[in-house]
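INFO batch 0412 | record 1 of 1 | parsing
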Amino acid sequence: MNGGTVFVKAISWGCGIGGGTPYMDVGGNSNNYTQTGGKVTAIGQNSPGLGGATGGMRMSSGSTDPHGGSVLGKILVSGGTLTATNSFSGAVPAIAPAIGGGETCYNH
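INFO prediction complete | emitting tokens
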């Protein structure tokens, strides 16, 4: 991001900016993010606003299937403004930072 204004909002366990969320698999990783200017607002629901995506659903809390969260690569912000948020909506609490890797989603 070098300039301008960007507003992104993702729902249903997806990131505003970053890795994608599969239905039944490991969350997608996000590579490096660099911002040298501009105004960026990234909103995620049940997943980071900026970062790796939430993993897919597990069929039970005792499942050993690899539906884990993901990681975020290097972040460099040398100018402009960056606002990232995460909100929760659903029956099972999601623990995800506003910026960072995504958690695992459990479907009990």
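INFO post-check: The first strand starts at residue 5 and ends at 10.
INFO record closed
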